[in-house]
Amino acid sequence: MGNDVSIEAATMCFACGPDNPIGLQIKFSLNDGICSAEFTAGENHVGYENTVHGGIIFSALDDVMANVLYLQNIKAHTARCEIRYRRALQVGQAVKLRGWIENERKRLILLKGELRLASDDSLVADCEASFMKV
User: In the chain, which end has fewer C-beta atoms inside a 10 angstrom radius, N or C?
Assistant: First the structure.
């Protein structure tokens, strides 16, 4: 989209890189400005007692927001991210991720993201982040 923006491949990204053997390998898509994906955490993503580590949830949310931009050839980095965990996520529970732009000011883009259970759409975690254009 951007004429002079050159986005490098992210094949080794921890969250979405298809070539990263220890990564989450989440496949994101963009439709009408909303980035979405589905993901199921496995036994390697545990914090304790069959509960998914909060850092894994954070990584998935950070990346769904980043991919709102990346999939539009906008290069930016997370400047700030605030997450709110609403409930525990168990290993093996499928989730839906969504991210979208809330506001844009010069080089700063405000995005929101949410992670919901695929089974009943209940909110597991949501976040708000500022990304800085490069």
Answer: N
